[in-house]
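Residues determine shape. Next comes a sample protein:
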Amino acid sequence: MELPMDITQFYDIRFLIELGVFALFAVIIIGLSILTVYSRNIVHSAFYLLGSFAAVAGLYISLNATFVGVAQVLVYIGAVGVLMLFAIMLTRRAIMEESHG
């Protein structure tokens, strides 16, 4: 009678690690996206969106699309994220000055 086959005969251990990393990034992206939509504070929502962008960049890098991952970091986190945060801060300041002035 033969012994049952080991799971490592079917899957390479590197494949299982990559699958785990992919699943981890997917859960982080989904969680931060949900927090982005349902957050009541707009600044927190912007930070959750930046975290989601960072997780997407990590996902690209883990899939050997390094250029796309670096472009994601530079364009979305660096430019769009900072632009959104400045717009939120300047808009809130103008609203605060109008209500108190």
About this structure: Helices lie at 13-38, 42-62, 66-100. The mean pLDDT is 85. The chain has one domain: 11-100.
